[in-house]
User: Fold these one by one.
Assistant:
Number 1:
Amino acid sequence: MALSFEGRVVLVTGAGGGLGKEYALAFAERGASVVVNDLGADTKGGGKSSAAADKVVEEIRAKGGKAVANYDSVEDGEKLIQTALDTFGRIDIVVNNAGILRDRSFARTSDLDWDLIHRVHLRGSFLVTRAAWNHMKNQKFGRIIMTASAAGIYGNFGQANYSAAKLGMLGLSNTLAIEGRKNNIHCNTIAPVAGSRLTETVMPPDLVASLKPEYVAPMVLWLCHEQCQENGGLFELGAGWVGKLRWERSQGCTVRQKNQPMTPEAVRDQWDKICDFTDATKPNNIQESLQSVVSVLSQVESEGEVDANPTAALAPAASTSGINPAEAIGQKIPSTTFSFSHVQCILYALGVGMSTQDPDHLRFLYEGHSEFSALPTFGVIPSQAAMMEGGLSSVPGLDIDFTQVLHGEQYLEMLKPLPTSGTLTSEATVADVLDKGSGAIILLDVNTYSGNELICYNQFSVFVVGAGGFGGKRTSEKAKAALPPPNRAPDAVVIDSTTKDQAALYRLSGDWNPLHIDPDFAAMGGFKAPILHGLCSFGFAARHVLKHFAGNDPSRFKAIKVRFVKPVMPGQSLQTEMWKEGNRIHIQCKVKETDAVVLSGAYVDLHGSSEASPEDLPQGASLQSELVFAEIGRRIKDLGPELVKKVNAVFGWEITKDGKSSAEWTIDLKNGSGSLHKGPYSGKADVTLTLSDENFMEVVQGKLNPQKAFFSGKLKVRGNIMLSQKLEVILKDYAKL
Ligand code: NAI
């Protein structure tokens, strides 16, 4: 649809000619009421005439457009806005475009050359914009353009005054973008190139003629449209081309050591590293920028404490972060208690979008229902106190900045059905600490008890931005891994909308972080508006699975794993895609409106429908793989020596059922004439393969390629991974079924 400005009032400063005139005509053509401001000065700011603005107004009116002239200097900012209010009753858009030049080499720049340029460009833009600001704030709409210049961004001989003022406008724009965001006031900066009287002195005439202002105006219109959500951007444009600029920063280098003075020599010696843009970062805001600087403080201070050896700072393995895994792992957080009644259960169910509109939701919403139950994912609520109440900050070895903590992943396993009232106690332990370079991951295991009975187990995986680099391990066998969904279309898709008040409702279940309700707080975190709790989307996804694959029977819910990828805004719709693989339902959640994946690697494990709990079954009794191993055993008896020659390795097998280890096998094709036995190998197997009974069968039947199974996470391999290539010999050729 064409972009219309009907009903919008636009002020374009310096619109008597050049770029400004083109903007004024283009806005008017699309229905805007335009204030055409121009002092009618010469290029150096001298003289004054109403003719320039009048001509543009005439041209607009002749085409049936709405326009009024204003002849004040931008230094009288209030008067320009008053013209808009008096004539059209409002002000929606301000394009700060008026400009003059007083080019001189720096040595010859006079006070007047400096001041005049600053007064028109920087101070003029400030005064005009300030006069419009409160009107925009009150109407919760405003679009502002600042006009900078390549001369400011890169420098240009003879334009010291102009460069300084133009980049001053970019600084102004950057801050207005932040202050205006919550009131839907957006401010962007352009650095245009166009032929005009300002450029005809520096460019050849044919270039001036071909770089038309009409190749710049459409971008300005887009940035000023209500549909455009860009805010705080900087763009270069001209000749019909538009590009965006941003800052890039080298990884840099800390040139200071604990208890030692910082020296210019240390800076000199690291100069190449300081200026090396390999792996450069792109800080988006002042928080991201400061973070790396501030983290140096704790890095430097912690140096030497791990190792008193004065050369420790030179050793690459020396700790450079406030994290000391050896100290932190295994630490317990003081236990927390959670008392609740049916009220908290119902509030939680409402918080994750349950509704009386669905009759089968009533068992979670009405305490008088014959099957009234708590939703299984309510199991995260009693345990989260360990995180919320600052428990982590008391852990020795975890000296981290708690403003940099992100909730990365969550695992919940139900061991007993949740009661609908009572008091639960949670015991939290730091299970592991991982070093991901850009940050640290803390795995927190929380067991929640009713009396002595273990009700549920949660694993919180929290990512601490900027806390990596302490030389720790990158992966952990304690982590409950996220798993990718199968490579086929989902078996079921559910679309469910969140409401504008979803986060306001969900927080009543105990996550009071203002990020989910306070626009100012959200803005500080770099979000346009308060975001939905990740655990709220988690609750949505879980109940979609429960309804679709378990008839809303909470006793069938066994476990859930989720990775939080992107935030959801309250009011957006969640699209849960589900794949059934035995009793495991893989899930992926997207925001319907944007198609962005918000929960990934997720799955829900269900108990089978007939049995209350598969753990009650005799271990391994129902494994299909038993038959295959029996067959392999027979083949080894027949062809053992030949296989030993061909393969020369010991294979350990771990077959899982419903995510739990169910049977172990050893195929020894290294010693003697080969053997098979049930159970682990007495020594160290050359390679150990872990996979589910179902996937094992698929591999054997040639339906699942072992390499693919490995890359999709279905097959885990420890030891010499190359040996898995010999699987074909063992499985396919000799285990024909
Ligand atoms: P222009 O000289 O054609 O237009 C500037 C207009 O501003 C003139 O009509 C002038 O009368 C008016 N003006 C000057 N002082 C004023 C004041 N105190 N109050 C109200 N109006 C005033 O120049 P052009 O090229 O259209 O420039 C527009 C803007 O774009 C300027 O800010 C300029 O610095 C900037 N720019 C232009 C580039 C180009 O390639 N044309 C390159 C980079 C930036």
Number 2:
Amino acid sequence: MNWNSSVSGLWKAGPRTAKSLKKFGIGSIRDLVYYFPFRYEDYSQIVPIAGLQEGQAVTVRGKIELLAAKRSFRRRMVVVEALLSDQSGSVRVVWFNQPYVTKLLEAGDEVFVSGVPRRDMLGFQFASPQYEKIKPDFSPTHTARLVPIYHLTAGVTEKQIRGLIKQALGFFPSVPEWLPEEISAPLSLFTHLEALQHVHFPTDQKTLAESLRRLKFEELFLLQLRAELARMAKVSLRAPEISFQEAAIKEFVAELPFALTKAQKVAAWEILQAIQKKAPMNRLLSGDVGSGKTVVAAMALYNAALNGFQGILMVPTEILATQHYASLCKLLGSKGVRIAVYTRSQRKLFNSRSGEVSETEYSKAQLLKFFATGETDLVIGTHALLTEGVEFKQLGLVIVDEQHRFGVAQRRVIKEKGERVHFLSMTATPIPRSLALLIYGDLDISIINELPVGRKKILSRLVEPAKRERAYEFIRAQIKQGRQAFVVCPLIEGAADAGLGTVDKKSVLNEYAKLSEKIFPDLRVSYLHGKLKPDDKEAVMRDFAKGQIDILVSTSVVEVGVDIPNASVMMIEGAERFGLAQLHQFRGRVGRSVHQSYCLLFTDSDSATAKERLVFFETHQDGFQLAEKDLEIRGPGEVYGTTQSGLMELRLAKLTDRELIRQAKEAATNVAPLIKKYPLLLKKVKEWEGRVHLE
Ligand code: ADP
Ligand code: MG
């Protein structure tokens, strides 16, 4: 038996148990040992029976005097009753629905019983407590200690998994210690093996805390060491030096119809400085919805064009490509910049070079040729740009908008394409700087943490189902005033359309039918979802932008970046189905101009946690706070995307472990240049990277 052996080789783990374990990813002995408890029951306090107190989790050690099973007719179950005594007194114990207890214990046995005693007229009683027979040379597993509790699915019991893990731990007495002494000694960290043992079976709270500290440190240290190594590897890479055309940029800023916020100016300045350098910029631009990232991107792209370099602005959806293309043409239209849009359905070139403005449609081949011969300055496109055969003459800057919306494979290609150019990734997922440093350790970060002045607060309400009619009246009134509304649904089609007989109302098609036929037959209602043909999607979005549609029923495709300043109502159906950060994105679709805007949430869910989440959303406008709440509820993977960052590997460490993060960072920075001196550590990083990249 070794780390890689199957769990089915363990004593008492047959094929059935192995199959159940497989369901939560446990196949080998190693998997088992790295399946950590999610909490502990503290039964470490052993008290004399006479000293029992109501409601306190404790263990008693005693001898079984009587043991008998009875069928309880009232409760329709088997009840095992026992009397347990020690020198100080005796206590009653009952087990409900566990007839097998009579096979495992008998009168005369010495046992530990752990649980919370209750007092009734006859004195104290333990109901269905944990129990363990005391044998010579025995250390308790389920009682009389800090007892680990694991997340389980059907087919395996806590008792079983504890027993299996205890056996498994016996199979690797020597785990090589890969953390250099120079790091572990000053921080007095446990060895890896000590930590593994104590995380499952801690002798007390202190060893538990210490083992968690070591394991968390490992995760944080490896994450940051990897980032540090990546950063070092990049130092030798070269990107074009794009010099800062200060006068032209100042003029551009002066001509904008608004004044840039301070945060926008700082971010733009940081970016323009960074792309002057030989080392490729690798930067994250994080700013809440509506904070004005596009104009910052436009400045960088314009600056590149002024230097004769080409730029790419890559977006996750056709809709967004269309919109960015329109706004960049507007922003840069008088600047002699040649702007292309390249998606599956749109291939156009906007040219104002010769002083005259022209917009021409081209074939795919023609446009590709223009990229390759340098006859475009910047191109806005979807991942169609990533397909093979797209070549550029003088690529200098790649910007990715809403990068979290790209798939893993796509992100990898983008990253590779971006190796020898400057790279900027924009996200509206608000992320505090300290956390960003950890997650995107090898990226530099610019944060736009303020909204343009004059933005009105968006009023958000969780609307009771009974008040739905009034919400519709409200929408009608808004439209009468000239505004427009979004209705977001979690699904495209309801179950009825899929022929399942039951009607799931909260789908785009069902809601569209209802709103257009019954509720607002006199208004212009349309719909949008990801499965429509790109041309149709574009047409709908264009009509909505032109004000030719009053109400747009849509799936989450409108989440991303769409800008319709005249829209003032965002109504969200099935709101419990969306994460807080995503709801915040929806809400960010309105309130983009002077009109007071509203976000109306609907849910049919009775769940208290769903309600709590939505109420939190209703009362919080700040994207950072929402992101933190989301983090708390759904974990970092869901909120920030795990795959590229290796956040998945943070199984124990929390983003709030600030001090440990700092210590791990310091250790990683110190050790990275000396990594060759530590072959075991290097091996560990590689092994870990291998796992991360396999996702
Ligand atoms: P996001 O950061 O969500 O991508 P956008 O770049 O789409 O935000 O900007 C949202 C809206 O705010 C756009 O209509 C844009 O023209 C406008 N805008 C950007 N910066 C400012 C500013 N400093 N003052 C006023 N309006 C601005
Ligand atoms: Mg945007």
Number 3:
Amino acid sequence: MKKYVYALALSALVLAACGKKEEAPAAPVASSAPAAPVNTEEKVLNIYNWPDYIPEGMIAAFEKETGIKVNYDTFETNEALHAKLVAGNTGYDIVVPGSTFAKPQIEGGMFQPLDKAKVANLKNLDPAVMAVLTKADPDNKHLVPWAWSFTTVGINKTKVEKALGKTPMPENAWDLVFKSEYTSKLKSCGIAYLDSPTEIIPVALHYIGKDAYSNDPADYKLAADMLAKVRKDVRLFSSTMIDDLAGGKACVAIGWAGDINIASTRAKENGSKDVIEALLPSTGALMFADTMAVTKDAKHPNNAMTFIDFFLRAENGAAMANEMNYNSANLAAKDQIKPEIANNPSTIVSAEYMAKMIQPSSWTNEARESMANAYNAFKKGK
Ligand code: N2P
């Protein structure tokens, strides 16, 4: 009974946050709720998520407990997932888009609403994060946060300091990847950019003082002009950033803070003495929130709800931070986060830096298209 009270309190909060009237509570709230109908689905669940994004053993534990066999595939960019969803018949039950893409995907009818009565652990979620997600999903009907972090500059400090020689580190870390004065020196140890228009163009826009979520093609042109100046210095457009940083193919990267932290650990495990770290640029970094959603034609929606509820257990939220270096929106997990993780400012961001963070928004479909064109031209060096 108690958990329903919390769930109601939370949904009231969330509804209040987005200024909507509270709707009649769902049926199972009464203490004499009828037994849930038997789940007749085949015991299979198909999940499509980003690589290096799930604590080891989590899927095995879910399979063991529920008898549901999980097929787990990965994609590397929001663009790749989006193209699959647009084509339809993905075969996946749960997909994990960034909230910036989830908005047009919801508007395009690509997801089905959650069956919240089957996800009691939604009560564990941070109402503040859920309020942010209402920008993409107005009544929190479709999206459940998987993890969040930010796109930033990652460096192999040892190699970067060597390559820069007498030039001191810039005050704004974005200079390392966008300013010729630095890129011309760092190209010798390798500059890598994430290979995705919606990771690179927004931070380039931000760097030239424009809105990262501008919908104006004229702004993309300006960002492309800035990028063109450093194109010759960029060695890699990477979808394997952890290995590229840890293995020494790149010494500076535009990457995801969590993956940069994973690279740091991996390099140490491989016996490297180099220090790899995710920086906090003085002007801010690009926050992202990745979210679970159930596809409209999912064959196993009940199993999807079972998985979502399992994922939202406090210990699983804590494992996202402790093992993967990504932030969980699971409030109940907070006191299980290890001190060394909690003290890493590029994993658990301070309130002060949070104020500088570029908050997620979204683009129109047309804007995304012209952003992709600007990016592809840049990449080809045209
Ligand atoms: C991959 C994490 C993906 C974050 N390890 C980018 N949305």
